[in-house]
Structures are given as C-alpha cells and as structure tokens.
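hi! just following up on the protien thing from before. the input was this:
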Amino acid sequence: MLRIEAAGYLIVLHVHDEIVAEVPIGFGSTEEFTRLMTRKPAWALELIPADSRSRYHNALKEAPMVLLASSYDESKYFKAVDLSDDRKVRIKSVTAEAVGTGADKQQKLVVWFTNDKRGLVLNRMNNRVLRGAFGDDTSGWAGKIIVIFSMTVEMHGKPTIGLRVRIPPPKHSGEATVASKPKPSGNGHSAAVTQPPDDDLDDQSPAKPSLADEMDDEIDF
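and the predicted 3d structure came back as:
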C-alpha cells in the first residue's frame, strides 16, 4: 500500500487483498497499478505465489508414477546368486518361518540383522555353526557378528552355489590369535562364544571352511 500511495495513487478503500484508489482521469494505468500491488517485498522474493503453488501441486498429482519391475524381484531372504561378496552382518533376532511352497514348505529358523533387511534361512550346516559358536538358545544370538558368503556346494548330487556362515575372528593389534573350540556348557550343548565389540562390519574376510565340512542340505528357493 505504501508503494502504491508513493506512486501517486490515492487509496480510498482496501479489504484484505483488494485496493480501491481514486486518481484523476488520464493518470497511471491498470497495468502499473497491478504491478505495484503484486510486486514482492525483499523478504519474499524466494516465496512461491499461492496460485503457482496450486499449479505446482496439481502437476505433482498428475505426474505418472514410475513402476520399476526390479522392485518386484527382491527376495526377503539372502540368496546365493545375489551375494557377490562376503557380507558381514550383526544379528538382530531369530524367528521361525514357513519357507518354501507346496509340499516343500518347511518350518525353518531365519536370522535377521540390524544392517540388512534380508533374512538368512538356516540350513543344518549353518545352524550348527551358529549354535556351536553362540549356544543353543537363539535369544542369546542378538548382537553377535557373522559373515555370510557363497561357495560351490553339492545339492542332490549336483554342484550348486550355496550360502555359508563363519564367525569373524576378534580384532587384536599386533597379536596372533588362535580360535579355541567352544567348551561344553554342562547340558550337552556348547557354551556361547563372547565376541568383542566390532563397530566396522565390513573390514574382515577370514578364510572359508573346507568343502569337506559341507553337507547336502541346501535350501532351494
């Protein structure tokens, strides 16, 4: 309003965003008056006008949604064919899930992780590795760190790519360590191994177990 009056337009009435001015015949123009009225102040130069915001939001609503086929080709479980490198993960929880389809559906233990949304379905071999390292009670596995890797195994008499797990050795500066076999806990099961804190889950790559330790029990997805 001050800008309009400074330009010589005498304001006689204003209501909200409407202004009425009285001027001599031949003075000014509707275009100039509109330009003075709608010019942004210095503090509002970056703001989007209300009518522009409406057009912007309407354009967003009308924009076609991009449908990616790859989004529907993701498994909730780790698969050997998708694992190109060793994956170091921290255990969050262990659940029992119905895995497979039709007559092949079975109840399996599934390990879930804090740093990966996929779960690991445990076959007998991996079950025994984790059970031997962390104990038979799966509630005690939370927070433990393991490495998942892929290797060639035998399934139904044929070579295939399977998933295996191993326990990374503890970090020691300048000292060689020898992993000791878990001692019996007194109830026939191995006692859980205590792991030191490991803030970096991708910095170790221990040797893989030999093929002689493998078993013909891969889970076929």
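The helical segments are 2-6, 30-38, 50-62, 124-134.
Residues 50-62 form the longest helix (13 residues).
cheers
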